[in-house]
Amino acid sequence: MGPKTIFITSFHPLISRNILSTPLIGRLIGENGLRVVVIAPQKKKSFFERELSGSGAVLEFVNTRLQLRDKLLRYLSLAALDSRSLKIKRSSKMRTTSAFFGKIAANSFGLRLTRYLSARFTPRGLFDDLLGKYAPLLIFSTDVQNEFDVRLLIEAKDRGIKTVGAVRSWDNLTCKGALRVMPDKLVVNNEILKNEAVSMHKVRPDAIEVIGIPHYDFYTDPKKRTPREDFFKSLGLNTAKRVLLFAPAGDRYVKENTVDRDILKIIDKNLDDNWQVLVRLPPTDKVSNLENFNALGRIIFDRPERFFATPKNNEISKSSDRRLADSLFYCDAVVSGPSTMAVDAAFFDKPVVLAGFDGAEKRPYKKSILRYYDYDHWKQVLRSGGAKLCLSPEEFALEFALAVSVKNSGSRERGELVRGQCQFTDGGSTGRLLSVILKTAQNDGKKII
């Protein structure tokens, strides 16, 4: 009999940061004597071999080509979930099968039907050889709504293998459709996600564990930051000037994207000569009409490493995440589009201003950047007051001036935002995840719906 084995999936670009960059693999191997097998896309083999070199993990790769059944079941899962986020999506973006089904299936019957059809018709066989080769004790699905995670979870259940599944991100339970398969234990970042899992996806509360955000463990220790002079030098920043960090929305959010360019112009107009702007480009998206913009020579672009030709396939390396942490640690204020950068900035207690208007244009709501802030996952962030949403250039200029001029402005509200989104700030989220995995592997799994 070989060593006891844990499978860990990595089929979404954020998993390389969210999970694989944490101490989880090392602790499973070093502290518990387990064999860890990371399963990833064949087309990304070179990245994972480089990034996980020396980790002790065994790497296995599979072909990640979706079948028609995967796509149809995804459409059905989107249709089966009744959330404000998906209602907005259906009215503005989802002109497909899911938009049609959404009118008739977004109810409890649709949820049951989705799970029944997923159990019956999800493609099987992709993981047969790996399951036979390693006979894993447990599957850790890092993204329970990813089509390939769903396939592996269903094959694991067919074989009676225990499973732990993670909700990958703050918007997944309201934006990515109904949970199609239930792991033995579901881990989530916070109580907000737990409540959504219970109320919208009908998961039993006692089958959910709130663990915090594992990759934020790295953010909690100031000693892990790059020395200030070294960091500034690496990006060409002036150590004598303050730093405004700008995280543009990107083309995925805005078609014919002139919004980010216009916001950057407003930022530049409202900053005096004591400031410089660090533009953190999104790692998995493009930003049109922006990269050649450089007013007064004080705008610096930080381009995360690109490992693949298509931006949406890009992975986030440890070095790229370290640079983001350094940027947040050393900046003085943040301007962001509708992304998790608002939470990142609040975690570092940096004033954050959100651009909720379309730059110099006036776009209809269905095409506006504003609609994204009406998604469910933004409720707590905006309610906390820890991130200031501005609906016009004039409002933006006022909030922006406050953010860059008043020290510690809004710190209490940012603390409220962090308590809601992160749950824990003790650097122990990876440890809590490890505990859930080990306990589930040691005990008999139970159905959670």
TrEMBL record:
<dbReference type="GO" id="GO:0047355">
    <property type="term" value="F:CDP-glycerol glycerophosphotransferase activity"/>
</dbReference>
<dbReference type="InterPro" id="IPR007554">
    <property type="entry name" value="Glycerophosphate_synth"/>
</dbReference>
<protein>
    <recommendedName>
        <fullName>Lipid-A-disaccharide synthase</fullName>
    </recommendedName>
</protein>
<dbReference type="Pfam" id="PF04464">
    <property type="entry name" value="Glyphos_transf"/>
</dbReference>
<dbReference type="GO" id="GO:0016020">
    <property type="term" value="C:membrane"/>
</dbReference>
<dbReference type="InterPro" id="IPR043148">
    <property type="entry name" value="TagF_C"/>
</dbReference>
